[in-house]
């Protein structure tokens, strides 16, 4: 074409190294436009090659080469993402603009047939002198007025600071908060639950401020399977006073896989595949119906929010599993002792 106007969609052929924000102009009279400003990433996650006992059963693309090529294709059209190499050949650090963007990428790769593992999200901090700075978001909420109290309480616990509240008397309230990016990890699912799906939220990058201090995270431990097999109703019923299960009877598990949330702060290794012993003696209570408490299914967003620092989310086209980073219980116990007595 001889020329194009603003709003036209064109394709370049024969020109390499073109990126979003570049200006293509004549050599005689170059007049570049101001480059588009893209907010810097605030959250990072580690993507690992799946090395669990069930690796390769459900996914089509498994190797580090497949994952690296897919991530490189993603950053060509997603300007807010960054991919950094790590000291391990089977892992990649992916930086993005929040937990939601990372969850969308993970879900997209999962539906395309990729199988991998991801770690807990971490915020990307900066250091100026002796101060640690963390990213801060400007949070905008549009909610029914009856949910103002519960959301204000939730955001205050996450170090949020209200800067504006507008109530026009229509039944809905507009609220604005300044909150560290750490406080928004896992908040979206709670927000939708607390507002019963009627709330709208949006965030804009505000800048960097001094470290806000500790933000309450998960205080409960995990129920961890200690051997491979299939979950039995007999073993699941015995876990009723230990915590809440996340797997149904009949689900295949492996040693080191997280099968539930414990009601105490320390992890517990359990035999979730134990079967009831059969004898040739009859009993009046042996054939009683067992009523199991229903398992709590976990979505991808909930899994990313739930996991601790020593846990990973195993993502395949058919399943989402939680597991310990170290599957060997002896190694996990050695790390626990080192942290306790450090």
Describe the structure.
With 342 residues, the chain is α+β, with helices and mostly antiparallel strands. The chain is 20% helix and 28% strand. Strands 1, 2, 3, 4, 5, 11, 13, 15, 16, 17 and 18 form an 11-stranded mixed beta sheet that branches. Strands 6, 7, 8, 9 and 10 form a 5-stranded antiparallel beta sheet that branches. Strands 12-14 form a two-stranded antiparallel sheet. A hairpin with a 4-residue loop joins strand 8 and strand 9. The longest helix has 14 residues. The radius of gyration is 25 Å and the shape is globular.
Could you tell me the radius of gyration in angstroms? 25 Å
Structural class: alpha+beta
Tell the overall outline.
Answer: globular
Task: Name the helicity range.
Answer: 10-25%
pLDDT averaged residue by residue: 87
Number of helices: 7
First-to-last CA distance: 68 Å
What composes the largest sheet? 11 strands, mixed
Q: What is the fold's blueprint, element by element?
A:
Blueprint: E1 43-49, H1 64-77, E2 82-85, E3 91-96, H2 99-111, E4 116-118, E5 122-123, E6 126-128, E7 131-144, H3 148-157, E8 161-167, E9 172-180, H4 187-194, E10 200-210, E11 222-225, E12 229-230, H5 233-238, E13 243-245, E14 252-253, E15 257-262, E16 268-270, H6 300-306, E17 311-315, E18 320-324, H7 329-340
Parallel strand pairs: 11-16
Antiparallel strand pairs: 1-3, 1-4, 1-5, 2-3, 4-17, 6-7, 7-9, 7-10, 8-9, 11-15, 12-14, 13-15, 15-18, 17-18
